[in-house]
Amino acid sequence: MKYLKVREKGEKNSFEESAEKIENGIKKAIDGALDENTDEIEKMTGNSSDEPAPVHNDISKLKQTMTTVFGGFVLLMAVVGVLSTFFFFKGKINDIRNNSAEKAMFESYVFPLVVTDAPAFDNQHNLSSEIMLTAAAWDIILYPNDKYTEEFGYITVPAIDVEARAAKLFGTGLSFVHQTLGDIELSFPYDEATKTYKLPVSPHYLSYVPKVEEIDRVNELYTLKVGYYSPMSTWLPSREAKPDKYMFYTVLKRGDSYCITAIKQGEIVEAGM
Q1: Is 220 or 36 the better-scoring residue by pLDDT?
Q2: Which residues are CB-neighbours of 177 under 8 A, at least 6 positions away?
Q3: Quick one: pLDDT at residue 103?
Q4: Which residue, 3, 91, 143, 243, could crosslink 227 as a Cys pair with Cβ 3.0–4.6 Å?
Q5: Is pLDDT above 70 for 23?
Q6: From residue 95, how far is each of 87, 98, 212 by CA, in Å?
Q7: How many Å separate Cα 183 from the centre of its chain?
Q8: C-alpha distances in Å from residue 83, one per residue of 79, 80, 86, 93, 213
Q9: Confidence of residue 5 (pLDDT cuts 50, 70, 90)
């Protein structure tokens, strides 16, 4: 009788041994594939364990810096705006205190008499026709009308226009005798045939320029303290410039117009004062 050999525990047949060998080989292959070339994979993906790239942090810092710079710029502009507004209103307040606009208006108004260096008088009706017409001619030169055509540095002005400027300065009801005006240094020729004056467009000579220092008003009567300044002194700083003399102008307001009724002699300013 044949007996079957019973396999002891732990023993493996040839088929099981072969399967186990194949399984172990597959495991080794997989483990090797996972472990090899890890450095190359990191290079290909751009990731390095030694040098991480914090891109998000850099962008955040850049935004923070730009926000700070922009905020500083806005603050600076706000400060500049506040300062500009302050100095603007400060200047306006000083102008109101000093009657700057009114002084400038009267300086323009008396300029023709100042440049003429008209003598003192107590009533415009006692003033000579020559002085009034000379001041009127200067008023046209200083504040010309576009209707006059320049020719060779001169404009031709009808005598009636000169009379109108005289009325603007001294009022109405005055009589005039037309003649050549001025002196050797600067003359305004009069043509009796055409009843016109030839006036220079840009005279090279000015005796004085005015500066109204003070204004006193009683009802419609103004008293102006006018400094007579040399044209050269106007280039100096205001604190250093000194007038050659002072004259007091009496100006009467009539409605919207003015007229000069008197000029009184003021003090003469000595050199060095």
Answers
A1: 220
A2: 129, 130
A3: 96
A4: 243
A5: no
A6: 12, 5, 14
A7: 42
A8: 6, 5, 5, 15, 30
A9: very low
Residue 234 in contact with residue 208, Cβ under 8 Å?
no
3 state SS for the chain: CCCCCCCCCCCCCHHHHHHHHHHHHHHHHHHHHHHCCHHHHHHHHCCCCCCCCCHHHHHHHHHHHHHHHHHHHHHHHHHHHHHHHHHHHHHHHHHHHHCHHHHHHHHHHHHHHHHHCCCCECCHHHCCHHHHHHHHHHHHHHCCCCCCCEECCEEEEEHHHHHHHHHHHHCCCCCCCCCCEECCCCEECEECCCCEEEEECCCCCCCCEEEEEEEEEECCEEEEEEEEECHHHHHCCCCCCCCCEEEEEEEEEECCEEEEEEEEEEEECCCCC
Joined together, the tokens standing for residue 242 give 């000194």
Q: Residues 6 or more apart from 215 whose CB is under 8 A from it?
A: 99, 102, 103, 106, 222, 223, 224, 225
Q: What is the pLDDT of residue 3?
A: 41
What is the rounded average pLDDT of the residues 10-30? Answer: 58
> CB within 8 A of 158, min separation 6: which ones?
195, 196, 197
Contacts of 245 (CB under 8 A, 6+ apart): 227, 228, 266, 267, 268, 269
Q: Among candidates 167, 162, 223, which has minimal Cα distance to 188?
A: 162
Only one residue has tokens 């810092």, namely 61
Q: What is the pLDDT of residue 61?
A: 74
* Cβ-proximal residues to 231 (8 Å cutoff; 6+ apart), any chain: 206, 208, 209
Task: Sketch the domain layout of the chain as residue ranges.
Answer: 126-200
Cβ–Cβ under 8 Å, residues 106 and 251: yes
Specify whether the CB–CB gap between 266 and 248 falls below 8 A: yes
